[in-house]
């Protein structure tokens, strides 16, 4: 493949390398806190958040895979571990025997409630705290512009800036759906 455009200048290269550096170290920092506090990886936490966002409706595994931008085999392995730990249940779709659904158990809600305060503390420590309000606004706008290129459909959790999706355990405690008898 031949290079068709200009090379990065020093400012562009430094900005890109700063982002790449964050992407290299951030997953380990998120995993370390969540593993310590709740025996969850960050991805497992995101799966629980997505299931919490679904409320009292079980979520189709294919929709959950799309929402978490992962492959069905990876999601299946993660759901199997979460199910083994008693955090989720899997059920067959009554209309489509090939389709499966996942839902949070009470233990899953409790684990999400356990994980969330430490996660928020870490987000404040590594992201919110070092930035001014103005810089936070810039970070949001920059992230939105990059996501518009990478995910024009806005399916990434963070790409839903005009909704409250993804807020479970972040800007509020996880909210269990009300049980009606």
From TrEMBL:
Q: Spell out the SUPFAM superfamilies in the cross-references.
A: Winged helix' DNA-binding domain (SSF46785)
Q: Identify one Pfam family in the record.
A: MarR
**Which residue stretches belong to region Disordered?**
157-181
Residue ranges of every copy of the HTH marR-type domain listed in the record: 12-148
**Protein name in UniProt:** MarR family transcriptional regulator
From the Swiss-Prot or TrEMBL record, what is one GO molecular function term? DNA-binding transcription factor activity
Q: Which PROSITE patterns does the record associate with it? A: HTH_MARR_2
């Amino acid at each position: 493949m031949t290079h068709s455009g200009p090379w990065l200048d020093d400012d562009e290269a430094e900005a890109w390398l700063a982002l790449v550096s964050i992407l290299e170290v951030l997953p380990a920092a998120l995993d370390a806190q969540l593993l310590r506090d709740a025996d969850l990886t960050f991805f497992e936490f995101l799966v629980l958040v997505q299931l919490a966002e679904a409320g009292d409706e079980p979520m189709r595994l294919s929709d959950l895979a799309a929402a978490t931008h992962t492959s069905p085999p990876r999601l299946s392995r993660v759901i199997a571990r979460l199910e083994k730990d008693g955090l989720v249940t899997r059920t067959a779709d009554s209309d489509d025997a090939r389709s499966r659904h996942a839902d949070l158990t009470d233990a899953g809600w409790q684990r999400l409630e356990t994980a969330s305060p430490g996660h928020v503390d870490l987000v404040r420590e590594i992201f919110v705290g070092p930035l001014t309000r103005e810089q936070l606004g810039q970070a949001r706008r920059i992230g939105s512009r990059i996501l518009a290129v990478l995910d024009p459909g806005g399916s990434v959790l963070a790409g839903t800036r005009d909704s409250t999706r993804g807020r479970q355990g972040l800007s509020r405690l996880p909210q269990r759906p009300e049980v009606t008898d």
